[in-house]
Amino acid sequence: MPVVRDLRVLLRLTNFRRLLLVRLLSQCADGVYQVALATYVVFSPEKQTSPGAIASAMAVLLLPYSLVGPFAGVLLDRWQRRQVFLYGNLLRALLAGCTAILITASVPDWLFYASALTVTAVNRFVLAGLSASLPRVVDADRLVMANSLSPTAGTLAATAGGGLAVGVRLLADDSNAMVVLLGAALYLCSALASLRMGRGLLGPDEGLAQPRLGAALASTAHGLVLGLRHLAERRTAARALAAMTLMRFCYGALTVMVLMLCRYAWSSTEQEGLALLGLAVGLTGVGFFAAAVVSPWAVGRLGAGGWMALCAGSAAVLEPALGLSFAPVPLLAAAFLLGLITQGTKIATDTVVQTAVDDSFRGRVFSLYDVLFNVAFVGAAGVAALLLPPEGRSVALVVLVAVLYTATAALLLRWRRTGGLR
Fold this sequence. Notes:
2 domains, mainly alpha, about 85% helix, single chain, Growth Hormone, Chain: A
């Protein structure tokens, strides 16, 4: 397979292997920690979980990526990236250990969320640093290959970490603290793995003139405003982002519904509910993988706008057909299909943005894309918290999502006919 062949080529590069190991351990720890937080909020026997609690947890897990992300590069261009991996992961190991203590001590929720927020905020610096470091360990001819394979490997590691967290929690007598400590141990391993690389290997180069920090941060904020203006002038990219935001909102609302169904409607014990949630997450992951296989062919045949319209239209039909029963088997099938549909739309949106936006604005537009992507998911969780009853069955939410999918498909078809999004 071409992917296996490309990976073998890259793994011959010693420093790439070392940087990849830091990524795999770090993102595996992310998967463990994030699932530990989610299961603590949703499946702890001592907690009466509500949609509002789930919305709060999603805000903690996702919003730091959006708020910190655009400004992370300013500091990464001033700090040695190897040191960011070392001290960032050491800090996360310490903070994750504190989170485990807070879980055991049954502290107020706000203190627990504050601890979790600090861990996820540091994560953005580590992920941005991993991407910024790749050109230092891979030559220019192999950089595109490395940019494709390295993040994919990290995503798989995070998924594996999530599965590991579910397994440990089921085996460790429902001990959320034990799972969080496993995440802390993996963060520590990632920090130690970074020591195998020289301190100055990953840059930035010393002696380069840097603007003052305040000026750099102000310039970043101004750059985002300019990126927003540029996006307004590129209607094709703006329309693709609008459609993706709506579909991400729908996906977020359905995610909260499935969490509540797993917790209360489909199971009599926390273990059974957690196992069902793990199955739903796994099927969604299979849908993501299927989208990666199918989308290049579909975009080639239908165009990006046509594939997005097909995804939205399919979701408008399948979501109420499978969802209104509120039964496990139809909704688990929907988890796979909506994983495929949502990820297929994202792949097409990425393509549109990359081709429609000028190269000099692409980074800033993708930062805005990141904000929209995560804020839509958190906003959907907030709306779901208003509509969902405790057991998770809400006809109103299913109908609302179906209407949004239908409206998105209609807009995409209209834009495609008028040439605004092909």
